[in-house]
Amino acid sequence: MKRSHRLRLLPAAALIAVGAAAPTVGSFNAAHVSAASSVNLRFANFFAPAEKVEFQNQILPAFHKLYPNVNVSLENIPDSRVKAITQIATGTGADVTNLGDGDVLFYADKHALKDLVPYVGQSFLNQYLPATLAIGKVGAHEYALPKDYSPVAVYYNKALFKAAGLAFPSTGFTWTQFRNDALALSKKSGTFSVGYDPAWSRLADAVVRSFGGKLVSSDGKHVVGYMDSPATVKAVQFWTNLTTVDHVSPTPSQFAAATNGGADPFAQGKVAMDITGVWPSPTYNTTKGLSYGVAPFPQASGVAPTNTICFAGFGMASTTHYPREAAALIKLMSGPVGDAVWGKAGLPSVTSVANSQHNDATRLAFINAVKNTTTVPGDLTGPDAGAAVGMTINEGLTLIDSNPGTSVQQVLGIEAKKGQKELATFGQ
After folding, report:
1. In this structure, are 250 and 262 located in the same domain?
2. Is residue 4 within 8 Å of residue 386, measured between CB atoms?
3. Mean pLDDT over the full length of the chain
4. What SS3 class is residue 330?
5. Which of 130, 135, 295, 418 sits most deeply, having the most CB atoms within 10 A of its CB?
6. Range(s) of the domain holding residue 64
7. 94: which DSSP letter?
8. What is the per-residue pLDDT for 8?
């Protein structure tokens, strides 16, 4: 879900008629896959080794039982979007592809994905938590169905809170309370009290929205006037002050050093709070001596709860010769069968599977938070948003956090102009 690419541009010739090869289709029931002949379906993925085992042992047998004539071959996803889209354009790409959240709009802009709605049907889509479909949706088209996802929340160490004489954070948690707790915890420990990545663009987007700001316009066309707006400047000033003034959170380089080799300061009991997704909770559950809770993502006073989302999904190449078979595989991987598998590490997207996890307080806190992801994150708002928004805010935050006293307003003004220039030259 945190897979990322540096956005690059494709030569125009490589994109000729990527979508033109896709035939017009009518309504489709994936149960009606033809069994007349054997089909070899190629699936490009970036699964971790454990996920490949889960796919081969749990999902693939269920698929073969339904569609014995369809062979599924796994292959590594190309190491860049350029290569992947070029392969699709030339008809050599895989039929089904794993997608990170930053991939969807970029691929769709190049006409490299096929709309899934005619193949899976609206009734199939109705079973998902609505916010989990937003990343894969462009207009009326659904280009990717979820694999897993996560919003963000605040992990807190109960023992360290008790030692500092602080009440556990709960519903209605504000940034003022977060800062006050962080200061008290830092004073008690004599070191950092929070351990998140201060320059993570997805988290920064959530912080900015929690203060009522935006990093980019809703249509993805304007960075100037948004990344440098008064509301965004206020949010970033607060956020960076935690590092440069209050010294309760690390600089980006200090965070990198503290997490080198996969170390987790929160699991080690070195910090009292962390802001991230659901991913580390299985490790925390088995960490000896660690008693933790999960609090809602903080909000500025007077601003409605907001959040962000990290997402991985499955899409169909626009040039596939086997759209029905590809859709059937995507339905199985993304629907209740696959969701029960992927939803153990990430979170489940299908409502029925999500409801089955309501006895787990940690996972329930994250599942409940997804309803606050009412807008697509800024670094996903447009096909070039990863570069125009994500990379510029990351660059700005790194500069501010590493150089105390730097003008937030000036830096955001510079980065906003860079982002606007990136948008203006995209595709040229």
Report:
1. yes
2. yes
3. 89
4. helix
5. 135
6. 31-143+310-372
7. -
8. 29
